[in-house]
Amino acid sequence: MSRPTDFFAYKNNVLTVDGVPLPEIAESTGTPVYVYSAEGLLRPFRELKKGLEGLDPLICFAVKSNSNVAILRLLANEGAGMDIVSGGELYRAGIAGVPGRDIVFSGVGKTPGEMARALEYGETGIFSFNVESEPELHMLSAVAQHMGRTAPIALRFNPDVDPKTHPYISTGLKKNKFGLNRKEILEIARDVSRYPGITIRGISIHIGSQLLSLAPLEDAFKRTRALLSELETLLPEPIRFVDLGGGVGITYRNEKTIPIPRYCAMIRKHFGPGARSGRPLKILIEPGRSISGNAGVLLSEVLYRKMRKEKDFLIVDAGMNDLVRPSLYGSFHDIVPVARMNGVRKKTDVVGPVCESGDCFASERPLPRKLDQGDLVAILSAGAYGFAMAGNYNSRPRAPEVLARNGRFELIRERETYEDLVRGEAISQPSRGRESAART
Ligand code: LLP
Predict the structure, then answer these.
(1) Nearest ligand 1 atom, CA 288
(2) How high does pLDDT run on average in the chain?
(3) Catalytic hit among 60, 264, 355, 360
(4) Is the peptide bond before 287 cis (omega within 30 degrees of 0)?
(5) 209 CA distance to ligand 1 centroid (A)?
(6) Ligand 1 near 106 CB (within 6 A)
(7) What whole-number distance in Å separates Cα of residue 206 and Cα of residue 208?
(8) Least C-beta-crowded within 10 Å: which of 1, 70, 131, 426?
């Protein structure tokens, strides 16, 4: 699986992306800026596609990990579908031109309005709603009936396995809010006539994110298979697909991760042709991080070096509003100087300008002593859940995004302006400053 510097390599001692030196990008857009490698996005996608060949696969990119429309379009052009979790993500998929037959809708709190939009998306509506509770099923059935449609659904199974990842991103334990347990699913299946607006086509699972071993996934796959056999006799129509979720981890530091070919082989073993009699199952997966994670960096400039005896602080121009993962999960992101530096290293805290002690990207990290004001640093592995989780805290405009491909780069999102910051706020009342400006 991908590593932080797979797509960001030093050439002539300068960090580059898809043939573009990062300083060129910083020069053009300013910093902080998110920079993505097209190669970095496409390679893992193609690897998954190859691994699942022949399984009638639909690889639905988890839009939540990186929602930029240009990136969705890049992946959609390669045949990716999209896994969405909100009306906003559906809207983005629409702009990216993703057909409805390639979209699945996950999430525990779909509103009736979102359901309606997804039902009327394109000409056909979306491929599947992954339903997470019985009341949601009722609501979806009612919304679909009201519109004179039938909603294709998968029931999201919570297999109650421990994915052994960060508790904030584990989702497949019975204490988690996600999915339906075996009993609930069987009850629904026994009484499908209670939901006239839906048709059950699949079973979906997603047990957590940043998984580093196949064991919990295999456990979940086995439980899903067992459930599928139980359902066979209960449902009026056979299940057509399984959606196995996302979750495959990446290397942030030196973690050993799941090799994609082994992951795909395991899927084939449990759900491929021959896994059940009759028509083979269609296979869906919802990878996010494994595609986008190591395809992006957050490029930032050092504003100040604050020297202390015990350790120095590097104050950079990116903050926790730009990349919240280290503050929120204590997660590790490698940080490297854009111009390669040798020499003495010193323990350094890399911090942002936001007024919170938690605004810290790295703590006591040995970094070159020479790194100083005006130097560029790249915060690696920031392509997934980076910009997508960015906000405006401290009234900081969100950073621009750039996509590099074959020696060129393109601005795929502009830096927000101060006007963007106050859009929608009640600013029509002229301020004193404005009044006096008008008088002169
Ligand atoms: N499918 C469903 C239903 C999900 O909930 C998720 C992620 C995915 C697919 C994609 O999972 P991936 O392949 O990216 O692991 N903000 C956290 C990660 C939250 C993941 C939420 N669900 C982070 O920064 O680590």
Answers:
(1) 14
(2) 94
(3) 355
(4) no
(5) 5
(6) yes
(7) 6
(8) 426
Question: In this predicted model, what pLDDT tens digit does every residue of 160-171 receive, in sequence order?
Answer: 887 776 665 566
60 is catalytic: no
Residue 130 CA to residue 137 CA, distance in Å, equals 10
Ligand 1 binding pocket mutation candidate from 47, 48, 65 (most atoms within 8 A of CB): 65
pLDDT-derived band at 440 (thresholds 50, 70, 90) equals very low
The reported pTM is: 0.95
Total length of the chain: 440
Which atom of ligand 1 lies closest to the CA of 246?
Answer: 13
CB 95 within 8 A of CB 412: no
Tens-digit pLDDT profile for residues 169-179: 566 667 777 89
CA angle 98/101/106 to nearest 5° reads 85
Task: Using most ligand atoms within 8 A of CB, pick from 45, 59, 64 the residue to mutate for ligand 1.
Answer: 64
For residue 225, which amino acid is it?
A: R
Domain ranges of the chain: 1-37+292-440, 107-285
Residue bearing the CA closest to ligand 1, atom 6: 246
Q: Which CATH class is domain 107-285?
A: alpha beta
383 neighbors 66 (Cβ within 8 angstroms): yes
